[in-house]
Every structure is written in C-alpha cells, then in structure tokens.
Backbone:
C-alpha cells in the first residue's frame, strides 16, 4: 500500500497551482499559511460524509469528490461568503489509485470553478469517510445569518426542491421514473450545484439565509427559531421538478419537496421592496427564484398551506443520528 505522503503527493498536492498570492504556504507542511484581505471576516464550515450514511457503497468517486466540496461551498453561499481555501481529511479502506484519481478530479474540477485552493488535510486507513473544511471571506458585518429574518419579510427559495430526495426514492425502489427524469434526479443528488454567486449577491439584499441540506421545512425552521418569528408558506408556490407531475404520487411529492434533503438550494428572506431587485437577479443569473411565503411575528412555527388555505401536516427532515433505512 502506498504511504500516506505518497497518496497526498500523487493526488492532492498541486504545487504552483495552489500558490495564489494569499496562500503563503499550502499542502506539504505542518500547517497552511493564509493571508486574509483587510476588512474581511473569515467564514469556516466543516462537513463530513460517511459511506452508508451520506452516500452508498460503490458511489461514483468523481461525483463523490464534487459533492464532498459542494456541500461545504453551499454553507458558505448561505452566508454570502466567497470561498477561498479548503482542507481535506479522508479515511480510506484501501489505496485504490483509480478511485483516488477520479475522486480528486471531481473535487478539483469544482474547486477550480470557484477558485478554491486545497491547502492541507490528512489521510488514514479506515471506513470510507470524507471531511472537508472550507474557509471563505465576507465583508465585515455583511454575513447573512439565520437570525436576521423580520416580520413582513418575504420567504424565497432558489432552483427546485425535492429532486435529490426523489433520486433516493428511485434508488430504494420507492419510485419508478422515466429515464430522463431519473438521470436528472441522480444528478441533483450526486452532483449538486452550490449557489455561490447567488449567495454573494444576496448579502446586499437579503436579511437571513440558509441552505437546504436537511429539507425545506426543517431548514426554514432553523431561521424561524434563530430569528424568533413564524412563517406561512404556500405549498403550491414551492418550486419542484416536473418529474413529480409525471409520477402522480402526491404523498411522495409532499415528503420530498418539504422534507427531502441534499437539494443545496438557498432559502432566504428579504423585505417586500426587494421583489423587483430579486426578479432582475434571477434573470441575470438564469436561476429561478421563487417567492413562497411570508415571515410573521409570533412563535417560531412554520405553517404550510395547501391551495385551499388548510395547514398541511408537518414533514420531518433528515436526521443525522437516525438509524439508516
């Protein structure tokens, strides 16, 4: 088996490509040395992906490399931060060089797309576990927080909801999709696109933000709890893939749209006068932004209303400590 240092050198040390002017020292030493911009605050996020919990055994390594970084970039996007640097800690059951090469390709393709430098990390033998820490910058005092929602704000969400959960349902045999719908759903689950540019633009527009990692209802609930407000959301206004209409399973659709994790879209709140600005931004970014509800004064509770105005029953989001199905 190749040594730890050989694996790092072959697959994760990139030399001059990581020597941007603010990476004083990158991979290869005991610690990285970074130079932050004056007037900026550092945003730091860590996510862990565990085989059998967050992805299936035999998952495509290139897509896994992409997703491992994407979920972290999504956290920074939710706070309006620009990603700069990342570290990778990975436990490997074996030194499969082809697997590692594909994983590194997926990771670096996304890193390069967002100008993120890999500046350190660790490797060891063990059950396949991937942990990435990403560091970004946001102008001092402008980070989007979960605690910023105010009564009277609109609730918005980007893109579409439920696609990743629908892919999981298809893989588990709980849904039968047409080939094109299945391919699109699997792409949403395995290779999510973090809304980095949207997040950067929202820091001058939105009051609060969060990404959809555990499910729309659960994640909006975090904003409500931290902000001390309630919300009313129109279920029919929630954006979703057209595959649900073709599937004609209303209960599965509701569970996926409200409770499905791994979408990595952004939920955010903004004052009503920002509606024209957000409509223009959606057009500029070629990214749908849907206004789905309103923030209300009162207890931090979410009411999801159907087309007749009746409150739908709650749907639980993803629980990282629940027993896997």
Residues:
């Amino acid at each position: 088996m190749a040594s730890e240092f050989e694996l790092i050198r072959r697959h994760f040390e990139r030399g001059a490509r990581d020597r941007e002017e603010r990476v004083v020292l990158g991979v290869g030493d005991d610690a990285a040395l970074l130079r932050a911009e004056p007037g900026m605050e550092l945003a730091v996020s860590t996510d862990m992906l565990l085989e059998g919990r967050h992805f299936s055994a035999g998952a495509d390594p290139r897509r896994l490399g992409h997703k491992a970084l994407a979920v972290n970039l999504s956290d920074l996007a939710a706070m309006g931060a620009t990603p700069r640097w990342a570290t990778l800690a990975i436990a490997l059951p074996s030194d499969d060089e082809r697997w590692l090469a594909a994983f590194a390709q997926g990771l670096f393709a996304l890193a390069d797309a967002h100008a993120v430098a890999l500046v350190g990390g660790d490797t060891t033998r063990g059950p396949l576990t991937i942990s990435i820490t990403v560091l970004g910058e946001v102008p001092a005092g402008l980070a989007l927080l979960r605690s910023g929602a105010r009564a009277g704000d609109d609730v918005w969400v980007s893109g579409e909801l439920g696609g990743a959960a629908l892919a999981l349902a298809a893989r588990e045999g709980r849904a039968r999709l047409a080939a094109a719908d299945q391919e699109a759903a699997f792409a949403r689950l395995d290779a999510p696109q973090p809304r980095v540019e949207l997040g950067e633009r929202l820091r001058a527009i939105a009051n609060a933000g969060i990404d959809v990692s555990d499910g729309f209802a659960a994640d909006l609930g975090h904003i409500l709890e931290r902000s001390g407000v309630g919300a009313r959301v129109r279920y029919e206004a929630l954006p979703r893939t057209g595959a649900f209409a073709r599937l004609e399973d209303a209960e599965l659709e509701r569970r996926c749209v409200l409770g499905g994790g791994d979408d990595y879209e952004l939920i955010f709140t903004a004052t009503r006068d920002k509606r024209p600005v957000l409509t223009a931004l959606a057009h500029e970014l070629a990214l749908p932004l849907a206004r789905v509800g309103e923030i209300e004064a009162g207890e931090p509770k979410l009411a999801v209303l159907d087309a007749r105005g009746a409150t739908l029953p709650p749907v639980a989001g993803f629980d990282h400590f629940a027993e896997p199905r």
User: Anything to note?
Assistant: The chain has two domains: 4-139, 146-305.
